[in-house]
Amino acid sequence: MEKGTETVVDWMIRCNVIGDTDRELYRYALHSLLLLVLPLILASCIGFCMGNVKQGIMLILPFMVIRKFSGGYHAKNLWVCLSGSGLLLFLCIMLSLYVECDWKLATATAVASVSLIVFSPIENENRILDMDEKRTYKRITALCVTFWGLLDIALYLLGFRIYTVCFSVGILLTAGLQVPCIVKEYVKRPKRESKCRLT
């Protein structure tokens, strides 16, 4: 992805669309745009192959919005990220087709929502947040989770059960991708505490 964004930015500079001084700004903007749009494209393609484009899109929407601020597991390699994301989306779309819209799904969604609010934001090694950013991201995550949760309930009450299931699975996916980071943090914590006691 880095090479792709670099190639596009170089092309824009050669065509005098942007100046060389704006290289870093446009590289970052293009990279951010790709990261934002890629999950939607991937979910649409997988949904299309399965004959369920709507479910793919409905499932990925809460994930895209919440994940931007909540953070979670990130693969270090682009191809691992794409193949892993593709597999996860395929499994989630399959799940959304077979899971029932009942109290078990509602309970799982509520637990995932609380987990997202409590543990967010989870930092990426490439992007360390300061205290103000952490507070802001936590507030935005709580607002996003609340918005999608209320929308989920409204769709259920209006009888759009399939979309309720898709939004719930999207919330579960977002919370699920935080679990490896949460476990890793709790495994590290006792080691750090024991080192502090020794010094």
Rg computed from alpha carbons, rounded to a whole number of angstroms? 19 Å
The quaternary state of the protein chains shown equals single chain
Mean pLDDT across every amino acid position? 82
How much helix, percentage-wise, in residues? over 70%
SSE pattern: HHHHHHHH
N→C terminal distance: 44 Å
Stretches with pLDDT under 50, minimum 5 residues: none
Largest sheet: none
Number of strands: 0
Description:
This protein is an all-alpha fold. It has one domain. Helix content is 80%, strand content 0%. The chain is built from eight helices and no strands. Helix 4 (78-98) runs antiparallel to helix 7 (161-176). It is globular, with a radius of gyration of 19 Å. The termini are far apart.
For the structure shown, list the relevant keywords:
8 helices, 199 residues, single chain, mainly alpha
Quick synopsis:
This protein is mainly alpha-helical and 199 residues long. The chain has helices at 2-14, 23-50, 53-70, 78-98, 103-119, 131-157, 161-176, 179-198.
Blueprint (SSEs and pairs):
Blueprint: H1 2-14, H2 23-50, H3 53-70, H4 78-98, H5 103-119, H6 131-157, H7 161-176, H8 179-198
Helix pairs in contact: 1-2, 2-3, 2-4, 3-4, 3-6, 3-7, 4-7, 5-6, 5-7, 6-7
